[in-house]
Design goal:
The chain is mainly α. The protein has six helices and four strands; from the N terminus they run αββββααααα. The chain is globular.
């Protein structure tokens, strides 16, 4: 299980890259997971976070062209802290790899900070935060690349077309981040 805010950057990076690989595999087969969250990421070796993982629970997965829903919207489904704006709005025709990448951005934010990127005391308030892009402050608990917040920000854009469109694109950008210098965080 992922331990939010307590993993070193190296472990976080390995987990994110492996998740991106798993998502790329699913997306290449026409599947959008739609419920990426820590509980659906199983670590094979608990002593080596990111050493091996399994993406589970494809219960809400959407198979690309096989979708048959009357109307333009559906009831929102997913885990609210990780749902993309198009999921809150039920705009099923807007679902795609970018929907899962939004959830990955929420997960990456939580791994780095120990907190969810969006807060709300009710489902409505949480949905409003996601739909308005009102994120919590990005304050990592461990040393992370200085551009990690920018990378996560691109994953968390409100408009699906403004996000990374493919997991491979997000993985490439993640690999380009300059590694942080090891040492304690500056509390100033």
């Amino acid at each position: 299980r992922l331990v939010a805010g307590q993993l070193s950057w190296g472990h976080q990076r390995r987990i994110l890259l492996r998740l991106l690989g798993a998502l790329a595999y699913a997306h290449a087969r026409g599947l959008v997971h739609r419920d990426l969250k820590p509980a659906n990421v199983l670590l094979r070796d608990p002593d080596d976070p990111g050493g091996g993982l399994v993406l589970t629970d494809f219960g809400l997965a959407q198979a690309g062209e096989e979708r048959e829903v009357a109307g333009l919207t559906e009831a929102p489904s997913g885990t609210p802290h990780y749902m993309a704006p198009e999921q809150f709005e039920g705009h099923w025709r807007d679902y795609g790899p970018w929907t899962d990448l939004y959830a990955l951005g929420c997960l990456a934010f939580r791994m780095a900070t120990g907190r969810h990127p969006y807060a709300g005391s009710s489902m409505f308030a949480l949905a409003f935060s996601h739909l308005q892009g009102k994120r919590e402050a990005f304050t990592p608990r461990v040393c992370v690349p200085s551009d990690l917040e920018v990378w996560i920000g691109r994953l968390l854009r409100i408009a699906p077309g403004a996000r990374f469109q493919r997991a491979a694109d997000a993985a490439f950008a993640l690999r380009q981040l300059v590694e942080p210098e090891e040492g304690p965080l500056d509390d100033t």
